[in-house]
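Handout, section B. The chain below has 274 residues.
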Amino acid sequence: MRKTISLGIVAGAVAALGLLAPAHAATASSAQLSVLHAIPDTPVDVYVNGDLTLDDFQPGDLAGPLALPAGTYEVALTAPDAADASAPLIPAASVTLSAGVNYTAVAHLTEGGDPTLTPYVNDTATTAAGEGRLTVRHTAAAPAVDVLAGGTPVIEGLTNPDEATLNLAAGTISASVAAAGTTDPVIGPADVAIADGTLTIVYAWGSLEDGNLALAVQTINGLHSAPDGVNSGTGGQLAQRDSAMQLLLVGGGLVLLVAIGAGSAVAVRARASR
């Protein structure tokens, strides 16, 4: 399998998309973007404007955050080692980012098991002193679920690809995911830290039928400060396999996997918190 990419192509694509700017450099004219690859067993190559930009991107990886100029990006997803972007696994698509907004784009499976892309706006509004924010996103091929804290349902009937948000006192909770109306976990239990002034985002992903359900956890710090200064994912981007239920650090890659599962132009929009 190819493990190298032309430095010229990468440098050109990175420069063209403004990816040289660090996350904290986001301004009113740029957006922040993280990308979670949550389609099991599907490593991919990613092309931007016809150039190979990300090679052999693996399921469970979380890329970013990076500051990107507001605008629209053309991205295609191919099988690893494809000669070019002429035969994408899913038709090439456009993704539009708005200035001053913090996003996570999640490539995942629908409830029925089809690959798709869901872009989310991360709630970076200021939290009260001593509180953090927990957002749970259902991005797994599974029916509606309940989210349990200490064995008690705190979010009920969450369906793919919806999300729900709670403001909680800082501390650690024992969280698990169960089929709606039950308390028998299909993921977890696992300890989730709720930090003061931090947005913790928990993703349920994978496939219930295939037995590879997993959790991914993303953190965005600085909710006691201006949103433009938010640092999304400093040592807090984690993936967790249900079989081991052990958090492991994920990262690396670029942010260009934004078109996985999109079959047509996608305009990023905010999803209402439940």
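Note. Residues 1-25, 227-274 have pLDDT under 50 and may be disordered. Compare this with the example in section A.
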